[in-house]
Amino acid sequence: MLFTSVTFLVFFCVAFTLYWAFLYKRPFARNLFLLVASYVFYGWWDWRFLSLIFVSSVIDYTLALRMEATNCEKGRKRLLFISLGFNLGMLFFFKYFNFFADSLKTATEKLGFQLGDITLNVILPVGISFYTFQTLSYTIDVYRRTMPPTRDLVAFLSYVSFFPQLVAGPIERAEKLLPQFFRKTIPFDYQLAVDGLRMILWGFFLKAVLADNLAFYVENLFNPGSQFSGSERALGLVYFAFQIFGDFAGYSLMARGIARLFGFELMMNFKAPYFSRDIAEFWRRWHISLSTWFRDYVYIPLGGNRGTVAAAVSNIFIVFILSGLWHGASWTFLMWGLVNAVLYIPVYVLGVHKKHMGKIAEGHLLPGLKELLLILVNFSVVCLAWTFFRAENLGHAFEYLGQLFSPSLFSLPAAMRGGLVWIGIVVVVEWVDRDRDVPLKFDRFPRALRWAVYLLILSVIFYRGYFGEKDFIYFQF
Q1: Number of domains the chain is built from
Q2: Which domain holds residue 51?
Q3: Is residue 290 part of a domain?
Q4: Minimal CA–CA distance to 290: which of 132, 403, 442?
Q5: Is residue 108 part of a domain?
Q6: Integer Rg of the chain from CA
Q7: Potential cystine with 371: which of 123, 367, 384, 420 (Cβ 3.0-4.6 Å)?
Q8: What is the pLDDT of residues 381-438, one digit of tens each?
Q9: Is 100 contained in some domain?
Q10: Dist CA 332 CA 324 (whole Å)
């Protein structure tokens, strides 16, 4: 059930009406309703995987209560390892087993051994990487005693399966989202709802217009074996950069907007990432919920930057390799993580990673020349790294880069420039909205002008948008 489909529109209207008509003042009934609605939403893809998310949730709920009941540190650590083992084991089986099995088979064949077919016909459950990390953060926080476990099973199940962010994030922390399910009543907040509608409108545009229109160009330009000039390959990277931004940031915005319409607040997941001035700032602005998850649950526990520079560099490598692997069971994703690590480490060693912590072009309508150059250079570097993310395999990635870095790179692209119109619109709006929590607010504009913008966006969505035709890219993760 895609956010951009008519099916979801019907589902949302029914859920929204019942929620605010009968349930918002009754905590248990409200949470039970959200749980049922979320399971219907998730089961729409494949009802068989409902048992997986239910069992995962119940196990972590039970283990957290057991942790609270014992003061034995070894016992608490054992319970944590059970949670880690189950969740990561489940993730490995469904997402990575065939990848490692194929890699092992290839390696042994090169050594002269034949293992036969050891892969399994396993379907990847939608959103498994997202809700697995969400439940893991809960048990880890309970183990660290940074939050108490909940005894309300329905509220916990609703927290794990909350349908706006279930299948593609943001990856919420229990300490922030879970208490929102315990409120005695949730009054309807008009301003919160209006801001939510703005998020949905702009998120819908990013996905249905920007991402889905660019997808046709990207599929053509990234077609393995095709021949294009270097400038067209460069255009393909720019298109894919904005396709994946529109696709994922669009989903995150719609998730936040839908949650607000039900009285819930989700974290900001994207913050004008392509206006970043270095790669470290990019990772503070791109997929923020995942970046901060790896920071808090992997990088800092490994020692972070508390030891030597060599140790910190090693920890950075581990985080980026795991981040690449989190995105998919493929050597291309591992290479993408490695490339980002190689780009990030010089910035860290030179201390530049702390330089651009403030807002972009703060107090100015346009960036200065130096800031603009930094933005363009960093965007170019990020685009080059996206090659490995989008390529079918490593051979395809290097073939693509080989055609990119050719004399024809400095020629004018012969075709497929139509997507630049949508990119231009998005760049302008994102620049106006940079570092703001809510897009399209435009409070300084007259009401008539604001409504003219909203109606124009709606018109473009109905005229050029795609409704439920293309899955979100991050559903595969």
Answers
A1: 1
A2: 25-185
A3: no
A4: 132
A5: yes
A6: 23
A7: 367
A8: 999 999 999 999 999 999 999 999 998 888 888 767 788 999 999 999 999 999 999 9
A9: yes
A10: 8
